[in-house]
């Protein structure tokens, strides 16, 4: 499954409420930066921002997103999205990550993360941003 992953400069919550009013569906996930292990150490202005949100529009359509923090570098309109790949195994996640990152730039190495996934981010050789997320549970 490949899902669009949208990034916003602090307006993710408003954008996703709007998308829900347009497309319908239910939020299947909502996490704020304050919910992360590093949340207490973050600037107060960032804690309430959305780390991850998922809108399940129907059985075949999901839209995901997050707020882009200034610490991550500049958010550039037109380049504020990624394609999120959800493989069926850790081995497949690693294979896809390695193949897409060849000749590109690894933004976050693929590794086990606190939300129970094998996760990594990269920009491929053609300038497209990808998120690889194999969820264990």
Output the radius of gyration: 15 Å
How much strand content do the residues show?
35-45%
**Order of the strands making up the biggest sheet:** 2-3-4-1-5-8-7-6
Mean pLDDT across the residues is 92
Low-confidence stretches: none
The rough form would be described as: globular
Distance between the termini: 16 Å
Can you describe this structure in just a few lines?
With 137 residues, this protein is of the alpha+beta class. It has helices spanning 12-23, 44-47, 90-101, and strands at 2-8, 26-32, 50-58, 61-67, 81-85, 105-113, 117-123, 129-135.
Any descriptors?
2,3-Dihydroxybiphenyl 1,2-Dioxygenase, domain 1, 137 residues, alpha+beta
Task: Describe the fold and architecture.
The chain is an alpha+beta fold and about 140 residues long. The protein has one domain (about 1-135): 2,3-Dihydroxybiphenyl 1,2-Dioxygenase, domain 1 (Roll), CATH 3.10.180.10. The protein has three helices and eight strands, in the order βαβαβββαβββ. The protein has helices spanning about 10-25, 45, 90-100, and strands at about 1-10, 25-30, 50-60, 60-65, 80-85, 105-115, 115-125, 130-135. It has an eight-stranded mixed sheet, covered by helices on one side. β7 and β8 (about 130-135) form a beta hairpin. The chain is globular and about 35 Å long.
């Amino acid at each position: 499954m490949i899902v669009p992953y949208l990034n916003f400069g602090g307006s993710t919550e408003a954008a996703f409420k709007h998308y829900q009013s347009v497309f319908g569906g239910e939020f299947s996930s909502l996490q704020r930066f304050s919910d992360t292990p590093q949340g207490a150490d973050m600037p107060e202005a960032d804690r309430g921002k959305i780390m991850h949100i998922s809108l399940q529009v129907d059985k075949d359509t999901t839209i995901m997103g997050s707020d882009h923090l200034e610490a991550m570098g500049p958010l550039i309109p037109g380049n504020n999205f990624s394609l999120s790949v959800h493989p069926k195994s850790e081995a497949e996640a690693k294979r896809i990550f390695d193949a897409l990152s060849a000749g590109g730039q690894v933004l976050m190495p693929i590794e086990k993360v606190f939300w129970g996934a094998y996760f990594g981010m990269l920009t491929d050789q053609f300038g497209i941003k990808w998120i690889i997320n194999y969820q264990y549970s």
